[in-house]
Write a structure and sequence with these properties.
The protein has 257 residues and is an alpha/beta fold. It has one domain: TIM Barrel (Alpha-Beta Barrel). The chain contains 9 helices and 9 strands. The longest helix is centred in the middle third of the chain and has 16 residues. Bound molecules: iron/sulfur cluster (SF4).
Length: 257
């Protein structure tokens, strides 16, 4: 239930978490799954059954969380099930994806839900182990948008197709956030992608190894990042800092600078 409103809706999003990740973020909230490979083995048929089970429970979409390490199997399961599923397939990832990965999912994914975490190579190397993060993620996001096109919603406001880029605001990195968001503003028209600015950062896992990010973000930092998104004029979502960590407030509005 804790995705953006156009993904979660009333019934919730049908998330399937895959063990492993293409990144190694030192602050990962899901580190047991993403970096310690907790999980259990299932067959491709069992994965297909999970998709149908989630649909039966009323999920608005099938939401694949970090599926890249298992993509060939995921692809085969989707090829078998997608025609009968008739609900959107979401790929929810850290954005650090090869062009070939995006191509592999052509025709099987309806909604890309990538992060754009950093602009600076120093920050991405230090906190996520990938100095080339921005180069790889920015190229992947451009490719994702070309593949699925502009956002399309149903009459209830649920996203059926498109790219929703997430940005998690980090302590001390508000200017880096601004540059990442400006990249989106320079490369996409305001109706071509959605963006979501997240305030939920909590120093977990190995974040304490870096004193400068061993705290929540301040209201000043969050407002600074939100203002950058508003200047670019995108439709999007922001998290309410004063309510539960994962609660979202309605779309923000803003003028393109
Ligand atoms: S991209 Fe997300 S899931 Fe992967 S390590 Fe980073 S925070 Fe965790």
């Amino acid at each position: 239930m804790w995705e953006e409103p156009c993904i979660s809706g009333k019934n919730g999003s049908g998330t399937v978490f895959f063990s492993g990740c293409t990144l190694r973020c030192c602050f990962c909230q899901n580190y047991e799954i993403s970096q310690e490979n907790r999980g259990y083995y299932i067959s491709e048929d069992e994965l297909s059954d999970i998709f149908f089970d989630l649909k039966k429970k009323g999920a608005h979409n099938i939401n694949l969380v970090s599926p890249t390490p298992f993509l060939p199997s995921v692809k085969r399961a989707l090829e078998k099930t997608k025609p009968a599923l008739k609900i959107p397939v979401v790929v929810n990832c850290g954005g650090y994806e090869l062009a070939e990965t995006v191509d592999m999912m052509d025709g099987l994914v309806d909604i890309w839900l990538p992060d754009l975490k950093y602009f600076s190579p120093e920050a991405s190397k230090k906190y996520s182990g990938a100095g080339d993060y921005f180069k790889v993620a920015s190229e992947a996001i451009i490719k994702m948008q070309k593949q699925v096109g502009k956002p399309i919603f149903d009459r209830d406001g649920m996203l059926l197709r498109g790219v929703l880029v997430r940005h998690l605001a980090l302590p001390t990195l508000r200017k880096d956030s601004e540059k990442a968001i400006e990249f989106l503003g320079e490369n996409f028209k305001s109706d071509e992608i959605l963006i979501s600015i997240m305030s939920q950062y909590t120093p977990m896992y190995r974040a304490a190894e870096h004193p400068e990010i061993n705290r929540r973000i301040s209201t000043f930092e969050y407002n600074y990042v939100l203002a950058a998104a508003q200047r670019c004029g995108f439709e999007g979502f922001s998290q309410d800092r004063n309510s539960a960590q994962r609660a979202y407030v309605p779309p923000f509005e803003g003028e393109k600078a």
